[in-house]
Amino acid sequence: MLSVEAVSHTYAGAPQPALCDLSLQVPDGGVYGLLGPNGAGKTSLISAIAGILHPDRGEIRLDGQLLASLRREDARAIALVPQDHAFYPMLTVRENLRFFAGILDFSAAGGRRRIDECLAFARLTQVADQRAEHLSGGLRRRLNLAIGLLGQPRLLLLDEPTVGVDPQSRHFLLESIAALPAAGTSVIYTSHYMEEVQAICRQLAILDQGRVLLAGPLDSLLCHDEAVIEIAGGELPAALCEQHGLAARAPGCYGLSRPDTAALAGLLASLAGAGIGLKRLHYGQQDLEQVFMGLTRRSLRD
């Protein structure tokens, strides 16, 4: 298990922290999603786990061992596939993999074998002798992934791995990433694409402003036992809120916990009797966008 314990970090000159007393538990053996808008702290957290960023405060452990100690013992234990293309454009696909295999201190025979395995996994064998600068956007993302998998890491960190690819390449990447835990690699997957996280992650955390807003199994996060109503304008009278047990969630938005049919019918009748227009009523299963909007009241893509 990866344990992030009260991690905080403020970049030099920044008006507010990128990570603010952030704690998170990421179980082994799955794809764990980090979801949030730009600037939420996803990349900063990933950089801290990868050892690129040294937080001002807090600790990060993998299976109880501090990451700094783990990296000294096993440089291959954690791998990062960053947002940017992390390879040499003037080298071929195979030459790039050979270079990074050398950094990971593979033997000659072991390196050749692992390179062939990664080429096959990422379906790059046919373009292995092409220079990376001539690859399409989707192939470049697949080369990024192949490089990250060279050392057969226990934990693979993927930071926005599908940015700028066509739908077919995105489908292949998501399918490939979802298969990694079965081969022994746990994955942390960061994205602001809600549909990707919902498709391949069984557990996730929603971040914003360097904090964890919500975390847990996907099914439990999407299960909603509160009816949410939005009214056409203004605020509801305090007496009506008290009568029906409504709690304010945002301006013009109210929640009613675990309502039954009679409670909903009574609420709607009271609204109609008071001449209050109803914009929206939602109850039941949500998607990630609805969960996020209920927490932050703003778009994921701002």
Task: Summarize the structure in words.
With 302 residues, the protein is α/β, with parallel strands linked by helices. The protein has two domains: 2-218, P-loop containing nucleotide triphosphate hydrolases (Rossmann fold, 3-Layer(aba) Sandwich), CATH 3.40.50.300; 224-284, Alpha-Beta Plaits. The protein is 35% helix and 26% strand. The protein has eleven helices and 14 strands. The strands form three sheets. Strands 6-7-8-3-9-10 form a six-stranded mixed β-sheet, sandwiched between helices. A four-stranded antiparallel β-sheet has the order 2-1-4-5. A four-stranded antiparallel β-sheet has the order 12-13-11-14. Helix 3 crosses helix 4 (108-121) and helix 4 crosses helix 5. The radius of gyration is 23 Å and the shape is elongated.
Structure classification: alpha/beta
> What's the CATH architecture name of the largest domain?
3-Layer(aba) Sandwich
Order of helices and strands: EEEHEEHEHHHEHEHEEHEHEEHEH
Q: Give the count of helical stretches.
A: 11
Short account of what is shown:
The protein is α/β, with parallel strands linked by helices and 302 residues long. It contains eleven helices and 14 strands. The mean pLDDT is 89.
Summary tags:
302 residues, alpha/beta, Rossmann fold, Alpha-Beta Plaits, 2 domains, 6-stranded mixed sheet, 4-stranded antiparallel sheet, 14 strands, elongated
